[in-house]
Specification:
- This protein is α+β, with helices and mostly antiparallel strands.
- Among the domains are: about 35 residues, no CATH class; about 40 residues, no CATH class; about 130 residues, Band 7 domain (Tetrahydropterin Synthase, Chain A); about 50 residues.
- The protein contains nine helices and 13 strands.
- The strands form five sheets. Strands 8, 11, 12 and 13 form a four-stranded antiparallel sheet that branches. Strands 5-4-7 form a three-stranded antiparallel sheet, with no helix packed on it.
- Strand 9 and strand 10 form a beta hairpin.
- Helix 5 crosses helix 7 and helix 8 packs across helix 9.
- The longest helix has about 70 residues.
- The N and C termini lie far apart (about 200 Å).
- It is a single-pass membrane protein.
- Keywords: Hydrolase, Membrane, Protease, Transmembrane, Transmembrane helix.
- GO terms for molecular function: peptidase activity.
Length: about 375
């Protein structure tokens, strides 16, 4: 029995396969692909007088190809990109974000680097993935250990933030993006090498104490300026936006000893501050006391000078009277002197011409005064 007599092959009648009847279309059968191509060719022949082989048909096909080639020159630049137009591989212009046009390939091509994205490079540290702890930081000693200006070693970890320097649209002089594409083969490696070199230069001319304390901002600014100048000299088309110090410490092997030194310096500074405070308190007091003594001496000097001048004036006046009556003035001076000498003493008057012991009784008026609480010891004097 032949398969033809089985009405559809060995699986039965109709369009059946080895797994049963295939899916059936509910509508009319789809047209054959060859039939569609054939119909399209017929319509094209009817639209083109003379068919494909005629001159008009060839011209029309060439014109359509030229139009399609010219339309291929339109391109789009994203908001975070900038277009760099190349003519036969040479930079000619830049373009702004949006829809732009350049001569079609192969005359002109366009590259669109991202010029607004800020990139980061870590120097001295690496971020690794730990299956148990997640992201882990690893120190890279060959990058972070640096020599300071006072010949100490310091461990510096820092980060550099950079972006492609955008070129002025349509400019052929300010071509930062083009320089970035053609002048630097490995941008990240170049920026990393320049950053490490700049940091070593700045740290190498700075002492360790300012680096560890208050000079961080100055160091970041100096490294930033030095990096930008170097990259501009290279015409790299890179713009450094920030340099940020992450960690500045002594090496791990000597950090304990260094902390002891720091503590000793802090104690020394504290003692100096206390001594300065004591000096600020004592010195004004001493200066005040010295000023008081000086003023007292000046007052004594003025008083002594005035008294001496008074004594001299009195002596001159006595001299004038003495010259007028020497005997009277001499007697008056003697009596005044005796009065001044014996005025504050207890006296016993003895008259040698009197009979008996010669003691002349007298009334001590000073002893009878209420102001005399205790009599002074007796003192004998001789009066002639």
């Amino acid at each position: 029995m032949s398969w033809k007599n089985q009405s559809g092959g060995p699986w039965g009648s109709g369009p059946r396969g080895p797994w049963g009847t295939g899916p059936q279309s509910p509508g009319p059968n789809s047209p054959d692909l060859e039939d569609l191509i054939r119909r399209g060719q017929e319509k094209l022949r009817s639209a083109m007088p003379g068919g494909f082989g005629s001159g008009k048909g060839i011209i029309l096909v060439v014109a359509l190809a030229i139009v399609a080639w010219l339309l291929s020159g339109f391109y789009r630049v994203e908001p975070d990109e900038q277009g760099v137009v190349l003519r036969f591989g040479r930079f000619v212009a830049t373009s702004n974000p949006g829809l732009n046009y350049h001569l079609p390939y192969p005359i002109e091509t366009v590259l669109t680097p991202q010029v607004t994205r800020v990139n980061r490079i870590d120097i001295g540290i690496r971020t690794g993935d730990d299956p148990r702890r997640g992201a882990a930081m690893r120190d890279v000693a060959e990058e972070s250990l640096m020599l300071t200006g006072d010949e100490n070693i310091v461990d510096v970890d820092f980060a550099v933030f950079w972006m492609v320097k955008p070129a002025a649209a349509g400019s052929t002089e300010d071509i930062g993006a083009a320089n970035f594409l053609f002048n630097v083969q490995n941008p990240e490696g170049t920026i990393k090498a320049v950053a490490e070199s700049a940091m070593r230069e700045v740290v190498g001319r700075t002492n360790i104490q300012p680096i560890l304390t208050g000079a961080r901002q100055n160091i970041e600014t100096a490294v930033h300026e030095l990096m930008q100048k170097t990259l501009d000299d290279y015409q790299s088309g890179v713009l450094i936006t920030q340099v940020q110090l992450q960690k500045v410490d002594p090496p791990q092997q000597v950090i304990d000893s260094f902390r002891d030194v720091q503590a000793a310096r802090a104690d020394a500074e504290r003692l100096q501050n206390e001594a300065q405070a004591y000096a600020n308190r004592v010195v004004p007091e001493a200066r005040g006391e010295a000023a008081r003594i000086t003023q007292g001496a000046e007052g004594y000097k003025e008083r002594a000078v005035i008294e001496a001048r008074g004594q001299a004036s009195r002596f001159l006046s006595v001299l004038a009277e003495y010259q007028k009556a020497p005997e009277v003035t001499r007697q008056r001076l003697y009596l005044e002197t005796m009065e001044r000498v014996f005025g504050g003493m207890d006296k016993v008057i003895i008259d040698q011409k009197a009979s008996g012991n010669g003691v002349v009784p007298y009334l001590p008026l000073g002893a009878l005064s209420p102001s005399s609480a205790k009599p002074a010891p007796a003192t004998q004097g001789v009066a002639k």
